Amino acid sequence: MFCPNCGEGNIDKRANYCPICGKKLFFDQIKRKKLTIISIIMPVISLTIVITALITVYHIESNVNKKVLNYQNLAERAALSGEYEEALRLIKKGLSYRENYETLKNEEKLVEAVIELNEDLSSVEKNIMNEQFVDAKKKITTLKKQVDKNESPLFVKLTYEIEKAESSVKIGELKEEITELSTIDELAKKLSTLYSLELQEASELKQQIYTKMIMISSAEAESSLEKKHFSQALFEVDTALQYVVNNDKLLSLKDRIISEKLSFEEAEQERISKAIIAAEEEQQHNLTKAVGLVDVQLKVDKFGDAYIDGSVINNGTEGVHSIIVEFDVKNNEGKLIEAGKTNVFPNKLDPGESGNFEHVTYSTKKDAKIEIKKISWLLEEKKG
């Protein structure tokens, strides 16, 4: 039995007064039992409430932690895939649940740094497009110093992109050098230097040199052909064919030179003139409307060079050969960039057959358009 006044618990149950405080004891046996039960139950109930509250809080906090970790994992995947803006969005979402989560805050700083460096890299790419290679190299040097300070996997893709940009600068500088070259011998020497370069785009530069060799050879051969210097024209074509082996355009031009040489020697022009007079309307159609333009396309690449591709068709009733397409390349303001001409291959087109032509105009710098000025050809001589 215990005293309700002072709490003394070691009192004889027959006592009427508390031996400690002297207060009268009013509890009978039943009340004493109830008090004993209550004194046991209350702490149990309190403990149960506390435990329940702790478990609830634990589950709530666990769910929040799961959400934060999930956003962190998604953000890391997005960042490693190069989706930096999405990664930053996910990180900020995670921080909205745990704003003091240091790991996520550090990742936020890293992603923001990568985004900023990518913007700088975009500026480098614009410099390359505008052939501002000196400025591009300075920016690349700065970028490499900033990236080298960080070992995070997030910078791996950026490092690769910077290396690509650095290669593009080297390629761009070589392209500028190639543009200045005007002979096949000069181009051949430059071609030999490319084999020592370990650049992914080296094959593109080789193709650039091959294309210019074809253009120079074709232009020189055309000039000789106009003067009826057939042997010189063949020599110029064969010189280029040493490097651009089995090129369809050059082989077609060579075929055309041989054909015109034979025609010249056999006075083909005189026979064609007689045939035109005799054929009347049909011949007139073959002379003036036989070859028609099917289509022509012009595309400007990232270095500002305009690539021209087109095709023609023989709508006449006789075979034609030595087809020449004359054209103007102009900019958007209508200013003439180049007045050129090119031959159609194959050299001979029978009725209903189509042929192709191509050309490259260098350093257009911006969008360009092509205007076909004239298509000329020769008729095949009728036999019998």
From TrEMBL:
Keywords: Membrane, Transmembrane, Transmembrane helix. InterPro entries: FxLYD_dom. It comes from the Bacteria. The chain crosses the membrane at residues 35-60. This is Zinc-ribbon domain-containing protein. It comes from Bacillus weihaiensis.
